TrEMBL record:
Cellular component GO terms held in the UniProt record: transferase complex
Name the record gives this protein: Uncharacterized protein
Highest taxon of the lineage: Eukaryota
Entry annotated with the keyword Disulfide bond: no
Keywords for this protein: Repeat, WD repeat
Placement of WD repeats on the sequence: 60-101
Name of a matching Pfam family: WD40
Length: 154
């Protein structure tokens, strides 16, 4: 059997996949494998640059409890994060500052930027799920939201 040589990017991807499975972290790529966003185990978001010897170079601080999920916009300008502190936060990647915050009634499980709203309606919308069995669509430009109650009675 012939050995296959892996590219540097593929080696990093394999290592990250192993870390993601082992540590149950959420990763997302930014700028063609130059940077990754890591859902760190405590209350920080780290942006790590593997071309600089895996040194941490940006920390986004603000959540007061464990981060559950992160996502980045298609144009890589913003990151959103959800947390056990019942908030969804929007971060500017360039300035590392918090741009917006949405306070919910319960733990946020999953956050995602809506590609549909961005491409078809030119709106910045995040949808997220919560421990209270709701799904929320939040337009963070005009701070409006719509909550869908997914609770079903037995």
């Amino acid at each position: 059997m012939e050995a296959v040589e892996l590219t540097e990017e593929k080696k990093i991807q394999v290592i990250l996949q192993h870390w993601a499975r082992t540590l149950q972290i959420k990763v997302g790529w930014i700028h063609e494998f130059d940077n990754i966003v890591v859902n760190y185990t405590n209350i920080r978001l780290m942006i790590d640059n593997f071309k600089l010897s895996s040194r941490q170079f940006k920390i986004l601080s603000g959540h007061t409890s464990k981060i559950t999920n992160v996502d980045s916009t298609f144009d890589e300008k913003f990151i959103c994060s959800g947390s056990f502190d019942n908030t969804v936060r929007i971060w500017d990647i360039e300035t590392t500052s918090q741009v917006q915050e949405y306070k919910h009634l319960d733990t946020i499980h999953c956050v995602k930027f809506s590609q549909y709203h961005y491409h078809y309606h030119h709106q910045n919308v995040i949808y997220f799920s919560s421990e209270d069995k709701t799904i929320c669509f939040w337009n963070f430009n005009n701070n409006t939201s719509q909550i869908l109650d997914c609770y079903t009675k037995p």
